[in-house]
Every structure is written in C-alpha cells, then in structure tokens.
C-alpha cells in the first residue's frame, strides 16, 4: 500500500470515471448551497447601515474574488506536482483551472465595478483590490494564450507551469505594491482568523455562498478536466470503450 | 435572526435604491458561471463527436473478418 | 580564451553585425516622445509633470521591441543546443546572455532618455531620478521579458505573445519606479524606494535566469 493512490491518480481512466461522479455531487451541493445562501443574503440578511441594500452584492463578489485567487494558488500546486512527480493529470488540472479562474476573475471584476457605482460613485476606481484583480486577469489570460500558442501539449504544459510558478511568487509582491500605491483602500471585511465585525445573520450566508462557489468551481474544473482528458487520450482504447458504453 | 427584510415581493425586486446594481450583478454571475458550464458541456460533446468520427472512419477501413 | 570571454566577444560581434536592432529602440523612443506633445499640448508645464511617466512607459515599450529576438536567432541556428554542452551551468550562460543584452541594447537606450527628457522639459532632478530608476529596474525587466521570450520559443511565430504574457508581472517595478519619480518631483527622500527597487531587481536577476534556463531546456529538448 502507500503508492496505490499515486498510480490511481496518475491513471486518466480512473480519474475520468471518478470525476464524473464527483462532478455530479459537487453540482447538486453547489446548487443547493447557492440557492440558500443567495436567497438568504438577498432577502433575509439585514441591510447594511452604511451601504444599504447595495452591500448585498457582497454575497457574489467576495466569494468569487476569493476563488479567483484561490484557483491561481491551486494552479501553482498543480504546477509543482507536474514538475516534481511528472503527473500528467496535474497539467490537465492547470489547463482547466486557467479557464475557470479567468471566468471567476472577470466576474469578480465586473461585480466589483458595478458595486463601485453606488459606493464610490463611479464604475472604475484604481482601487488596490480592483487593480490587483485586473493584473490577475491578465496573468490568467497570458496562461490561456501561451497554452493555445504551443502545439505540443507536453511542452505547453511545462511552459505554463513555469509561468504559473513565476506568477505565484510575484502575486504577493504585486498585491503589496498595488496596495501601497493605492490610497483608496478599504480593509478586507472578511477574514477567517478574526471574528468578523458583521452580525451572524450577515456573514453566515456569506460563508454558505463561499462554500457554494467553491463547489461550483470544483464542478466546472472537474467537467473541464474530463473534456481535456478525453481530447488528449483520444487514441487510447479506454476512451473508445467509454464512448461506446455511453 | 432570519426574517424577510422586505414587506412585499415588489419591494424585494426593487431593493430600493440599489436594485439596479444588485440584480444585474447576480444576473451576470448566472450568465458567466452558466455560460462556462454550458461551454464546457459543449466542448465535451464536441470531443466525443470527434472521437466517434475517428472511430467510424477506422471501422470503414478495417478489413472485414 | 575562457567560455565567458568568447561568449561576450560573440555577442558584441552580433550587435555590430546588426546595427539596426541597436538603433531601432532609440528611434522608437524618440518618435513616441515626440508624439506626446502633439497628442496632448505643447504646454511645457503640463509636459514636465507627466513627462517622466511618459518616458518610463515609452522606454518600457522600446525595451520590448527586441525582447522577442533574445533567444530566437540562437535557437534557430542551433547555438542554444550547444549551450547544453558547455562545461558551464545553463543558468550561468543565461545570465551572461542577459547581461550582454542589457549592456548592449538596454543601457544605450537609457542613455538616450535625457534627450527625451529635454523634449518634454522634465526638471533636472527628476531626470536624474528617472535615470537611476531605469538603471535599477531594467535588469529585472530584461529578466522577465527573457522568460517570456524563452517560453514562447516553441511557438511558430511568437511575435508579441511573450510580451503579453510577461507584461502584468512588470507592475511592481513600474509602481516602485513611479513612486520614486513622484517623490523626486516633490523633493522628498527617494532612497528607501530605490533600495526596494534594487532589491527586487537583484532578486529577479538571480532567480529568473534559473526559470529561463528551465524554459530553454524544454524548448531545446522539444525541438530534437
């Protein structure tokens, strides 16, 4: 024992079958959690004493922005796994994470900018968090572009892994420099380590939604990974079996 | 702790005065995430279709036993 | 002659063989700078205020003109493959190559920026700060753009992709340099920020050649 999991995780067929089941579970749980969290946040949480009802955007914006960054870190973990253990699945994961991460970044940017209108009076402020999110979006875009430009998938995966690792080392530097640069900065309202200043009726739905969006991201990443696996392994016998079975 | 904050459904939808900001954000969220999900499904179907085509082509060329 | 010596001589010969690549960035810089007053206004007070930032951005773009070419010729004619057989580690050769690029292409470009500063009537003390920030920041920028160039070697026509991939990572350098310039123009102390900029540059110049080496090795292996 001990190494069996490693071989299983290295086997695309094993993963393809499992991921199909996980994906369904993630999808249903995400749907349920998001329904509860979003309705709670929109209808049942009390209005903010300063921002009124506009703060209700937080139930989408904050989890999505959090995930946009978390997905980049997940990609960095995949990059390390790819370099250290040469696990092809990690490369598939990177490819899927880049697309989903870019989608979440775009959503975070647009929701943040719409939230900015009632809060700051304008759609775009060069606020620290918006700016570093914009740079994160460019990083994701660069990864997608780099992968699509290199024809050899092995080469593309390793090139992307280098870029991801250089990016993940730079992200904190970018974040701190942008924060230092920007004077218009409000402190993050939600930290896992501190007791939040919000009442429970406000942060519980936020936590539910955070979990929900995590599961949505997992659903999307798993679905996308399955597609990539199918495409890359199209010559192998098991893929043909799977397709004939369906 | 949990009670409906609005006195009518209409006021909930109006969400005065910020309804025009809040609802589009959630609509956009649905659009982006739903769009991603549909796009990935479409890609998956395309991949399967592509492999089916290859398999059909090969079965035509296969010598009959 | 040692490997290093021969390496430097070869790079110098290559520069002399293609004077076009040497002058093109300077030409570009001066052209862009002369467009600024046309697009904005010839008011020298306004130009002096934004001039240093304009020069910084124009220099950055001018640097990127040659960045794509960094490894391409050596890759195409097989010199990169020979790098693997030198009795020197690959990252050391990368450092040499990047140092040569910086010395032969970037430093001359920086020496032209005072001319651009005069055209935009940038005050003298800001101009000196600008020169110092450029000298400190360009090693980091060269390393980043080299990584972009190395990563896109495997593509048929890399063109601008390497630049697009790397440009977002320039943000901290630009922010720090801009901070130095604002402080220089209101006469406050610029040394702490210069130290940060230098630290970033040194870190980039020591760590990134390793990544560039890995990226080059990938492409050399992939081509055979």
Structural commentary:
The complex is a heterotrimer of chains A (246), B (65) and C (224). Chain A has 246 residues and is mostly helical. Chain A is 79% helix and 0% strand. Chain A has one domain. Chain A contains eight helices and no strands. Chain A is globular and about 60 Å long. The relative contact order of chain A is 0.17. Helices cover 75% and strands 0% of the residues of chain B. With 65 residues, chain B is an all-alpha fold. By secondary structure, chain C is mainly α. Chain C starts with a helix and ends with a helix. The chains are: A mainly alpha (246), B mainly alpha (65), C mainly alpha (224). Chains A and B meet through helix 2, helix 3, helix 4, helix 7 and helix 8 of A and helix 2 of B.
Labels describing this entry:
heterotrimer, A: 246 residues, mainly alpha, 8 helices, globular, C: 224 residues, 81% helix, 0% strand
Summarize the structure.
The complex is a heterotrimer of chains A (246), B (65) and C (224). Chain A has 246 residues and is mainly α.
State the oligomer.
heterotrimer
How do the SSEs of chain B run, as a string of H and E? HH
Radius of gyration of chain A: 20 Å
The residue-averaged pLDDT of chain B reads 85
General form of chain A: globular
Strand content of chain B: under 5%
Uncertain parts of chain A: 183-195
Number of helices of chain A: 8
Global geometry of chain B: rod-shaped
| Topology order of chain A in helix (H) and strand (E) letters | HHHHHHHH
Given the structure, what is the number of helices of chain B?
2
Percent range for helical residues of chain B? over 70%
Number of strands of chain A: 0
Largest interface: A-B, 43 and 35 residues
| Global mean pLDDT of chain A | 86
Show the helix and strand layout.
The complex is a heterotrimer of chains A (246), B (65) and C (224).
Chain A: H1 4-10, H2 12-44, H3 58-85, H4 88-120, H5 128-149, H6 153-181, H7 200-232, H8 237-245
Chain B: H1 9-14, H2 19-61
Chain C: H1 3-17, H2 19-39, H3 44-67, H4 72-76, H5 79-83, H6 90-119, H7 124-151, H8 161-166, H9 171-185, H10 191-223
Helix pairs in contact in C: 1-6, 2-3, 2-6, 3-6, 3-7, 3-9, 6-7, 6-10, 7-9, 7-10, 9-10
């Amino acid at each position: 024992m001990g190494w069996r999991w490693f071989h299983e995780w290295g086997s695309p067929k094993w993963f393809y079958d499992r991921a199909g089941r996980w994906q369904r579970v993630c999808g249903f749980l995400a749907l349920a959690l998001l329904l509860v969290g979003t309705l709670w946040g929109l209808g049942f949480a009390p209005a903010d004493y300063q921002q009124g009802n506009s703060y209700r955007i937080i139930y989408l914006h904050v989890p999505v922005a959090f995930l946009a960054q978390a997905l980049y870190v997940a990609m960095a973990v995949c990059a390390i796994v790819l370099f250290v253990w040469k696990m092809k699945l990690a490369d598939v994961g990177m490819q899927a994470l880049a697309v989903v991460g870019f989608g979440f970044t775009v959503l975070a940017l647009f929701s943040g900018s719409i939230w900015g209108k009632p809060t700051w009076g304008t759609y775009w402020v060069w606020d620290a968090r918006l700016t570093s999110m914009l740079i994160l979006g460019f990083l994701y875009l660069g990864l997608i572009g780099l992968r699509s430009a290199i024809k050899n998938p092995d080469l593309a995966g390793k090139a992307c892994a280098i870029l991801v690792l250089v990016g993940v080392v730079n992200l904190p530097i970018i974040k701190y420099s942008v924060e230092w640069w920007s004077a218009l900065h409000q402190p993050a309202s939600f930290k896992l380590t501190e007791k939040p200043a919000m009442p429970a009726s406000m942060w519980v739905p936020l936590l539910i939604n955070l979990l929900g969006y995590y599961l949505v991201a997992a659903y999307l990443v798993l679905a996308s990974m399955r597609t990539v696996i199918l495409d890359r392994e199209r010559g192998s016998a098991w893929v043909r079996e799977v397709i004939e079975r369906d | 702790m949990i009670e409906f904050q609005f006195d009518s459904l209409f006021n909930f939808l109006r969400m005065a005065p910020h309804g025009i900001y809040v609802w589009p954000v959630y609509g956009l969220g649905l659009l982006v995430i739903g769009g991603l999900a549909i796009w990935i499904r479409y890609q998956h179907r395309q991949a399967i279709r592509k492999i089916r085509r290859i398999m059909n082509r090969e079965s035509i060329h296969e010598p009959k036993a | 002659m040692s490997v290093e010596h021969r390496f430097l001589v070869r790079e110098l010969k290559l520069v002399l063989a293609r004077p076009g690549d040497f002058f093109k960035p300077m030409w570009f810089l001066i052209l862009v700078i002369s467009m600024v007053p046309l697009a904005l206004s010839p008011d020298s007070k306004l130009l002096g205020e934004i001039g240093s930032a304009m020069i910084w951005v124009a220099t950055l773009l001018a640097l990127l003109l040659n960045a794509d070419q960094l490894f391409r010729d050596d890759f195409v004619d097989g010199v990169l493959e020979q790098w693997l057989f030198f009795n020197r580690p690959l990252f050391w050769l990368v450092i040499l190559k990047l140092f040569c690029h910086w010395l032969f292409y970037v430093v001359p470009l920086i020496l032209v920026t005072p001319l651009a500063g005069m055209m935009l009537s940038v005050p003298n003390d800001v101009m000196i700060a600008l020169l110092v920030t450029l000298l400190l920041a360009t090693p980091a920028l060269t390393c980043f753009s080299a990584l972009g160039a190395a990563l896109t070697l495997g593509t048929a026509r890399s063109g601008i992709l390497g630049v697009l991939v790397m440009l977002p990572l320039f943000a901290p350098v630009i922010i720090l340099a801009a901070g130095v310039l604002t402080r220089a123009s209101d006469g406050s102390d610029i040394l702490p920020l210069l130290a940060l900029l230098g630290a970033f540059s040194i870190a980039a110049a020591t760590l990134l050649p390793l990544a560039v080496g890995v990226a080059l090795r990938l492409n050399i292996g992939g081509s055979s």
